[in-house]
Amino acid sequence: MKERPKINLPMTSKEWVVEILCVLAILTTIVLLVINYVRLPERVPSHFDFSGAADGWGSKSVLFMLPCLMIGLYLVMTIVARFPRIFNMPIEITEENAEREYRLARGMVAVIKLEIVLFMALFEWQTIKAAAEGRLQMGMWYTIAFVGVIFATIAVSIVLMFRKQ
């Protein structure tokens, strides 16, 4: 395999907006959990089936797992996005197209990162509500929407990579 060009690409204003939105979503999730924690029952739903019914229960401290996972995924994806030249690209990367393709790939990772953080934040909020109210208001539509949005982002990004090669 041919060595891909190494380019230092500063973050765009759109990428900064995505980063800020991700951090705000993570912080909001943590704040909502902390504010509601004392009001929650000791035993809370920890797993839901495809229809949204709770089928696993645990200590309310289990609710801190999702924000920790959010932070971990955010950090890993942020680090990975700094090295677009190592991504598996659907087209050949040359000196002429490297900047454009690296920006598209990095943008795709940023958008997917935001989507994951937002979906996880929504799920955490719905889990807190389910613990407090006794029922989850999300069903299979949530999983379908989550997977659909991620795949749509990937598909759009791949189409854009093939355009104007």
Characterization of this structure:
Helix content is 61%, strand content 7%. It is mainly alpha-helical and 165 residues long. It has a domain at 60-165. A two-stranded antiparallel sheet has the order 1-2. The chain is elongated. The mean pLDDT is 88.
Number of helices: 4
Poorly predicted parts: none
Shape: elongated
Task: Summarize the helix and strand pattern as letters.
Answer: HEEHHH
Mean pLDDT: 88
The portion of residues assigned to helices is: 55-70%
Q: Would you report the number of β strands?
A: 2
Strand proportion, as a percent range, falls in 5-15%
Taking strands numbered 1, 2, ... along the chain, how are they ordered across the largest sheet? Answer: 1-2
Cα(first) to Cα(last) distance is: 19 Å
Write the layout of secondary structure elements.
Layout: H1 13-37, E1 43-48, E2 54-59, H2 65-81, H3 98-133, H4 140-162
Antiparallel strand pairs: 1-2
Helix pairs in contact: 1-2, 1-3, 2-3, 3-4
Please tag this protein with its features:
mainly alpha; elongated; single chain; 2 strands; 4 helices; two-stranded antiparallel sheet; 165 residues
